[in-house]
Design brief:
CATH topology of the largest domain: Nucleotidyltransferase, domain 5
Largest sheet: 2 strands, antiparallel
Strand content: 5-15%
Number of helices: 10
Distance between the termini: 30 Å
Length: 246
């Protein structure tokens, strides 16, 4: 979001089960340390045990450092996996740089591994067998050398496949947590970050779009918080404006 021509980092905290906006805050940065402190404060206040988010590395670090379980948005992961495959498969199919042949992997097998990984990301079967498949795919490319090892200026295809397969394998628990998670009152998660995306679109961005940016930095928090608070009352009796209007 911009204010006076400058980008601001805005944190929006939402109850992922009920869709209730909890807080809107302007953060100093989007770095992991800042996110960790912000998330820790919210989690402590509401007693959260699971962090639902996109797959940004800074948020993963925050989840680990705060001791929260994490559910990474399945939609984000599927889109990112599909986009990666679209970029990489043409080159893999013809072993464009010879890096597959160097580790004894046939191009057709590499393409099949990509397709299998896409299928796993879509089905998200939370079983040891599915995790084992991701492990096996990754191990097939573990001999692919880094640019330093291969003495190249850029990452070769097999090494890119090695890194991406490791990332998806490491992400598996965070991707499938919603399949087994249940709250104290039998609540469930849908595996997406949609509740937060809706809160951002409805209570933060909508005002931002109509005003072509906020004129004061304090308005980013104050106006967005007011709109989010009022919007959260729509399913009930409505907001009591006497609480905010003298």
């Amino acid at each position: 979001m911009t204010w006076a021509g400058q980008w601001l980092t805005v944190g929006v905290g939402v109850d992922a089960v009920h869709g209730l906006a909890l807080t809107v805050d302007v953060l100093d940065t989007a770095e992991a340390a800042t996110l960790t402190a912000w998330i820790a404060e919210i989690a402590d206040e509401v007693g959260a045990t699971v962090l639902v988010s996109d797959d940004a590395d800074g948020v993963k670090t925050a989840a680990d450092q705060t001791g929260l379980d994490q559910q990474v948005c399945t939609a984000h992961v599927v889109r990112n996996t599909d986009a990666w495959a679209e970029r990489m498969v043409p080159g893999l199919a013809r072993d464009a740089d010879g890096s597959l042949a160097a580790i004894g992997v046939d191009p057709a097998e590499a393409v099949a591994d990509v397709a299998r990984r896409i299928a796993l990301m879509r089905t998200r079967d939370p079983t040891p067998a599915a995790s084992q498949q991701l492990r096996d795919i990754h191990r097939r490319y573990r001999q692919a050398g880094s640019p330093h090892q291969a003495q190249t200026a850029t990452m070769r295809l097999a090494y890119r496949l090695r890194l991406f397969s490791l990332d998806r394998w490491n992400l598996w628990t965070r991707l499938t947590r919603y399949r087994s998670w249940e709250g104290p009152a039998k609540e469930t998660l849908d595996g997406t970050n949609n509740a937060t995306e809706r809160a951002i679109g409805w209570w933060v961005k909508e005002r931002y779009r109509t005003m072509r940016g906020y004129k004061q930095q304090t308005s980013v928090e104050h106006v967005s918080r007011l709109i989010a608070w009022a919007g959260s009352q729509l399913d009930g009796a409505g907001a009591d404006l006497a609480l905010v209007v003298p």
